[in-house]
Specification:
mainly alpha; Growth Hormone, Chain: A; 2 domains; membrane
């Protein structure tokens, strides 16, 4: 590990909350696949399984920013403990409804409760970094880069673990493991009181959530479109490997993409940047759009592995300054909520991108489906340019020059 990251982990209390957050975050790449594998095994229908998983995703998009808002107002520990316990009970109910063959509506009800109580734990950990590094903000981009590496590791390893457990042990085993990891990680994070950001009660007279910040209204759809890029790439890559006669190498192909993003995150976080965050974010969006062009032109699996690696290099240098902008622009009393909103926007985008690419694959094949992430990246870049002034000023009037 390069020196900036080694120094980062010497921050008092950093190692325990990083470890707890990493364990608790494993489930974010496991629950969706785990629900599909469990429900499809007991009902015999991938359509029902997909609908149940979609219910969980939609309610997660509603519940995650709300729990983050309460954490900002009342403290992480006071919210983490009851919410994660409710989440554990909800997933246990979902598993039992599936195993005992209860009516289908019970699956949807349990999935809805599980989604409402699912936490965007990466946002909570990033909020802790902001508090821990409040006296050295220059190091915050290194911390956010490190968290992006953790995210990539989770998304590479999580699907493999849950698939092995569901297919090799028991259809419910993957979901049980994901639920246990969430419970252990969240309780361990709640126990770290020294690095917990102090609660900031709402200012009297203020109304609305974090979306009342103009810059957040610009960045939310941009992050959703970035999620569409990720989701569409995943589905298109799997279909491409299948069409090339090497479906078993689909995971390797996706791993090359994640490896590129992880390598870029390590490089990005180790550098000291002078360019402002908003400019770096806009450059990242432009580079990402350009990086989505080569996959639309390649027709060979082995060449595609190299191409998606280089495409992945554009991901982290876009996401990291994006989170940094949110950290800088939202009021401190809404920091966790703002970061959680970006994470849930990405999750919604992933679902939309996967669905859109899947339909195009069915109709026209994987090569055409690679146009979906390209289009999403181009629109994200256009929205970023259109909202550049708002992001650079946070939506506040600039002081008059004299």
């Amino acid at each position: 590990m390069s020196s900036p990251y080694r120094e980062l982990l010497t921050v008092p209390g950093a190692r325990p909350f990083v470890l707890a957050g990493s364990v608790g975050r494993m489930s974010m790449s496991m629950v969706g696949i785990g629900v599909v594998l469990l429900v499809s095994a007991v009902t015999g229908s991938y359509g029902i399984a997909g609908a149940v998983a979609a219910t969980l995703s939609l309610t997660y998009a509603v519940g995650s920013p709300l729990s983050a808002r309460y954490a900002d107002r009342h403290g992480q520990r006071r919210v983490l403990v009851p919410v994660v316990l409710a989440n554990t009970v909800s997933f246990a109910a979902l598993i039992m409804c599936a195993e005992f063959g209860l009516p289908l509506w019970t699956l949807f009800a349990a999935a809805a409760m599980a989604g409402l109580t699912q936490l965007s734990l990466g946002a909570w950990v990033r909020a802790r970094w902001s508090y821990a590094l409040r006296d050295s903000p220059a190091r915050l981009h290194t911390a956010f880069s490190f968290e992006s590496v953790v995210d990539e590791a989770v998304f590479v390893s999580g699907p493999i673990i849950v698939t092995v457990l569901c297919t090799g042990v028991h259809p419910a085993a993957g979901l049980v493991a994901a639920t246990a990891l969430t419970l252990v990680g969240c309780l361990a994070l709640a126990a770290q009181r020294g690095t917990e950001p102090p609660p900031v009660p709402p200012v009297p007279g203020t109304r609305g959530g974090v979306l009342s910040t103009p810059a957040v209204r610009v960045m939310t759809p941009v992050f959703l479109l970035l999620g569409m890029v990720f989701g569409a790439i995943d589905v298109s890559a799997v279909a491409f490997a299948d069409e090339e006669g090497h479906k078993a190498l689909a995971g390797v192909l996706l791993g090359c993409y994640a490896l590129g993003s992880g390598a870029a995150a390590l490089w990005y976080g180790a550098r000291h940047w002078h360019a402002p965050l908003d400019r770096r974010f806009l450059v990242g969006l432009g580079v990402l759009a350009a990086a989505m062009v080569p996959p639309t032109l390649v027709g060979n699996l082995w060449l595609m592995m190299a191409v998606v690696f280089f495409s992945g290099l554009a991901i982290s240098p876009t996401i990291i300054p994006g989170y940094g902008l949110v950290e800088r622009l939202v009021p401190p009393r809404q920091l966790t909520e703002g970061l959680a909103l970006m994470s849930t926007s990405v999750s919604i985008g992933v679902a939309a991108g996967s669905s859109t690419a899947g339909r195009i694959i069915d109709a026209h094949g994987s090569q055409a489906a690679f146009l979906v992430p390209l289009a999403a990246a181009l629109v994200a870049a256009a929205l970023g340019v259109a909202g550049a002034r708002v992001m650079s000023s946070g939506g506040r009037p600039r002081p008059q020059q004299t």
